[in-house]
Amino acid sequence: MSVNKIRTLLLLILILFIDPVNAQCSMCRAVLESEEGQQTAKGINNGIVYLMAIPYILVALVSWRISKIYKS
């Protein structure tokens, strides 16, 4: 199998098996669990996950770009 096929297969597997992540600190969780509708808790949790993902995406893009520069 070529490297590109392995990468594509790995990416597909990761996308298919994404599990929701609870990324709240203990204090935020304690305060937000008392709410009735849980809408605020869901919003804060999604915001934390997005803020956590952005640096990883940026590092991946920079690494990809550097590897393209070195290959050419």
Describe this entry's structure for a reader.
This protein has helices at 3-16, 26-33, 39-71. By secondary structure, it is mainly α. The chain has a domain at 22-71. The chain is elongated. The chain starts with a helix and ends with a helix. The mean pLDDT is 80.
Topology:
Blueprint: H1 3-16, H2 26-33, H3 39-71
Please give a quick description of this structure.
This protein is mainly alpha-helical and 72 residues long. 76% of the residues lie in helices and 0% in strands.
- Helix % is over 70%
Strand tally: 0
- What class, by secondary structure content? mainly alpha
Describe the sheet with the most strands: none
- Rg calc: 18 Å
Number of helices: 3
| Overall pLDDT | 80
For the record, give the distance between the C-alpha atoms at the N and C termini, rounded to a whole number.
Answer: 24 Å
Shape: elongated
The multimeric state of the shown protein is single chain
- H and E order: HHH
Poorly predicted ranges: none
| Strand residues, percent | under 5%
List key phrases describing it:
elongated, 72 residues, single chain, mainly alpha
